[in-house]
Each structure stands twice: as structure tokens, then as C-alpha cells.
Amino acid sequence: MSEYTITDFLKGLVRGVEIPDEALLGICKRAGVGTDSSVDNLTERDIDLSTAFLYLWIAGGPTTGSRWSEKDGEWSQSAGHGTFNYAQLRLYYRMANDLLKKYGLETEGAPQWGFRYGGIRNIRSGRRFRHH
User: Fold this and answer.
1) pLDDT tier at 42 (50, 70, 90 boundaries)?
2) 3-state SS assignment for residue 114
3) What is the three-state SS of 52-90?
4) What is the pTM of this model?
5) N or C: which terminus of the chain carries fewer CB neighbours within 10 A?
6) Number of domains in the chain
7) CA nearest neighbour of 19 among 73, 56, 48
8) How many angstroms separate the Cα of 110 from the Cα of each of 21, 42, 46, 93?
9) Is 40 a domain residue?
């Protein structure tokens, strides 16, 4: 039987959100755990921080996503993710910040978009988790 990894845990935590492997690598690195670490061998703090950084990754993303589908006779498949509204993204920030506060870590603010430096940018000051 294969072990239940932190990657499995994080992917199972959110429905309808595709999390690229590169994002999982960054999330786990920031939390100080390996992507193939068994959840059974991690502390509650490790799991909570991984979860918080996943939520920040989701909240820092676009509010719309791409979908695709194919159909050939009886066969069809589709993939992609849906749309998040502003309230949903704020909820992810709030859940992440609750976990960060639990360990006395600096919380992160939601982006505030505006015109700056010749384009639309996050104009809120402070450090943000980037998932590019």
C-alpha cells in the first residue's frame, strides 16, 4: 500500500482546483516539507503550514480559469477549473491567515488591484506569495 503523502492531502483538500506540480513544490518547500513526505510522519504544524500556503496560492490566483472539453460520439472528457469570486478568494486568505496566526507567523493581505507603474498591478504593499 502506498503512503498518503502531503501532496495527496493537499490535492484532496480543495475540490475543482487544479494544482500544478510546480505549485506543490513551492508550497511544500515554503512549509519545509518534501512533496513525498508521508502525512503520518509530519507534525500538525507541517500540515497546517502546507495547507496555509496552498490557500494563499489559490487566493493569489486569477478569479477565472480555463476549461476545455472534447467529444466524439458517446465519448467525452473535460478538464479545467471554474471561477472564484472575490468573496471566495478572501475566504481562502482568511483561512490561511488563521493557520499562520496559530503559529505566530506573519499573515498576508489580499491583493488590491490598481493602476501603477504603467499597468494593472497589486498595489497593496508587503510581501505576497507568488505562484508563477
Assistant:
1) very high
2) strand
3) HHHHHHHHCCCCCCCEEEEEECCEEEEEECCCCCHHHHH
4) 0.70
5) N
6) 1
7) 56
8) 24, 29, 23, 7
9) yes
Better-scored residue on pLDDT, 34 or 110: 34
Domain-located, residue 130: no
In a domain, 69, yes or no: no
The C-alpha cell at 132 is: 508563477
Over residues 44-70, the pLDDT tens digits come to 999 999 999 999 999 887 655 555 566
Residue 23 lies in a domain: yes
Q: How far is CA 54 from CA 2, 17, 58, 95, 127, in A?
A: 23, 11, 6, 10, 16
Of the candidates 10, 5, 8, the residue with the CA atom closest to the CA atom of residue 49: 10
51 neighbors 19 (Cβ within 8 angstroms): no
